[in-house]
Amino acid sequence: MNEVTVIGLGPMGSALARALLQNGSRVTVWNRTSEKAEPLVREGAVFAPSVAVAVSASPIVIVCVANYEVSRSILGTEEVSTALAGRVLVELSTGSPQDARDSETRARELGADYLDGAILATPPQIGRADTPIFASGSEIAFRRSEPVLKIVAGNLMYMGESVGSASAWDLATLSTLFGAMFGFFHGSLILESEGHRVDSFGSLIADISPVLGQMIKHEGEVIQTGTYEKPQSSIKTCMGTAELWVKQAREARINSDFPTFTKEVFRKAINAGFENEELAAVMKVLRKGA
Ligand SMILES: NC(=O)c1ccc[n+]([C@@H]2O[C@H](COP(=O)([O-])OP(=O)(O)OC[C@H]3O[C@@H](n4cnc5c(N)ncnc54)[C@H](OP(=O)(O)O)[C@@H]3O)[C@@H](O)[C@H]2O)c1
């Protein structure tokens, strides 16, 4: 039977603990606000009276709290530090690659194996076979925690021993998601201004997402190989679209923040001489920073 401790019972930590309980694992939990543990205790979890007791209860200790600062403050006491020796600490709070490196250094000093993870899902998606988690850090820590992590997210991806990798892939993926979301929100303004349904728009995007994914994949290959010269979509063509968004926003009197931002990036790329290159040539402008 898997024995695992979950520290942090916000929406995500609670979902992790519940998925583990449903799988038959022995789950010990701790949360600053103890009332949040009550539903899980009714489902079979053991509530530990302190963080040190929670850590001592299991060989695998998952932490999922608001951020790494909170995690450090929870795990920072002498009692907890002593209890961590010999265990696998799996940090699933969201943080930066440097946060992960700092946590790994501290865990090693305490004699714990450390794995950094990033969950690419919402709490209701926890426990599914297709739910992704990126993990990075010690391969020993990964192998020891793999059976437990696969219960909470079947699509577990080990990104290697370099501990900052999970966070880097997570932040990059979230950047892609939020970029698409802002485009979607502006698209929703356009459709609302013409009296169309936004829920149908969401469904349509979900249906055609493999085609959109192919376009992103192509741009990734172009960036990696630096082959911008034979464009499928030139920056000049894309600028035409951005200008149309701005025009439509003016005509419909809707917000134009997203079109204006996009047009500005294209303008910089055209000024730099990349007008007839692939869309991804904006990277050459973005790499120069602000
Ligand atoms: N929710 C999502 O969709 C999602 C998706 C992917 C990743 N994540 C990541 O998962 C982590 C947890 O997220 P969440 O959605 O469960 O909610 P959250 O609001 O980010 O975190 C809530 C947890 O942090 C604890 N906490 C906050 N400040 C604290 C402090 N000063 N001392 C002790 N504990 C403190 C809370 O304890 P109390 O209950 O006592 O306040 C609770 O256990 C975050 O890093 C988040 O980025 C969340």
Summarize the structure.
GO terms for molecular function: NADP binding; oxidoreductase activity. With 290 residues, this protein is of the alpha/beta class.
CATH architecture of the largest domain: 3-Layer(aba) Sandwich
CATH 4th-level superfamily of the largest domain: NAD(P)-binding Rossmann-like Domain
Domains, number: 2
Beta-strand content estimate: 5-15%
> Which regions have little confidence, pLDDT < 50, spanning 5+ residues?
none
Helix-strand category:
alpha/beta
Shape type: elongated
Q: State the order of secondary-structure elements, H for helix, E for strand.
A: EHEHEHEHHEHEEHEHHHHH
Bound molecules: NADP nicotinamide-adenine-dinucleotide phosphate
CATH level-3 fold name of the largest domain:
Rossmann fold
Main sheet specs: 8 strands, mixed
Describe the structure.
This protein is an alpha/beta fold and 290 residues long. The protein has two domains: 165 residues, Rossmann fold, CATH 3.40.50; 90 residues, Orthogonal Bundle (N-(1-d-carboxylethyl)-l-norvaline Dehydrogenase, domain 2), CATH 1.10.1040.10. It has twelve helices and eight strands. The chain has an eight-stranded mixed beta sheet, with helices on both faces. α10 runs antiparallel to α11. The radius of gyration is 23 Å and the shape is elongated. It binds NADP nicotinamide-adenine-dinucleotide phosphate (NAP). The site of NADP nicotinamide-adenine-dinucleotide phosphate has 21 residues, from α1 and α4. NADP nicotinamide-adenine-dinucleotide phosphate binds next to α1 and α4.
Set down the secondary structure blueprint.
Elements: E1 3-7, H1 11-22, E2 26-30, H2 38-42, E3 46-47, H3 51-56, E4 60-63, H4 68-75, H5 78-84, E5 88-91, H6 97-109, E6 113-119, E7 132-137, H7 139-152, E8 155-158, H8 165-193, H9 198-225, H10 235-252, H11 257-271, H12 282-286
Parallel strand pairs: 1-2, 1-4, 2-3, 4-5, 5-6, 7-8
Antiparallel strand pairs: 6-7
Helix pairs in contact: 10-11
